[in-house]
Write a structure and sequence with these properties.
- By secondary structure, this protein is mainly alpha-helical.
- It has one domain: Homeodomain-like (Arc Repressor Mutant, subunit A, Orthogonal Bundle), CATH 1.10.10.60.
- 71% of the residues lie in helices and 0% in strands.
- It has helices at residues 7-25, 32-39, 43-49, 53-71.
- Helix 1 (7-25) crosses helix 2 and helix 1 crosses helix 4 (53-71).
- The longest helix is centred in the N-terminal third of the chain and has 19 residues, at 7-25.
């Protein structure tokens, strides 16, 4: 029986790994391999959820902006 995975939760988990790698190694160090290692997953898992490296970084960036806007009160 196939394992049921919460796709959105997995993508958020990978985005958090991106943030950790970027904070530690900079954007240049945020390779798919580094993010996969940080998250404890393989590069194949990332390929399952994101088209490419740019798609992964863009998702992490947009999620960070979304979360930031939730904390900033609107006038």
């Amino acid at each position: 029986m196939p394992k049921i995975v919460d796709r959105d939760a997995r993508k958020v988990e990978l985005a958090q790994a991106v943030w950790t790698v970027v904070a530690r190694d900079g954007v240049e160090g945020a390779s798919v391999r580094a993010v996969a290692a940080e998250a404890g997953w393989t590069r194949g898992v990332i390929a399952h959820y994101f088209k490419d490296h740019d798609d992964l970084l863009l998702f992490a960036y947009r999620l960070a902006l979304q979360r930031e806007s939730e904390f900033i009160p609107t006038p």
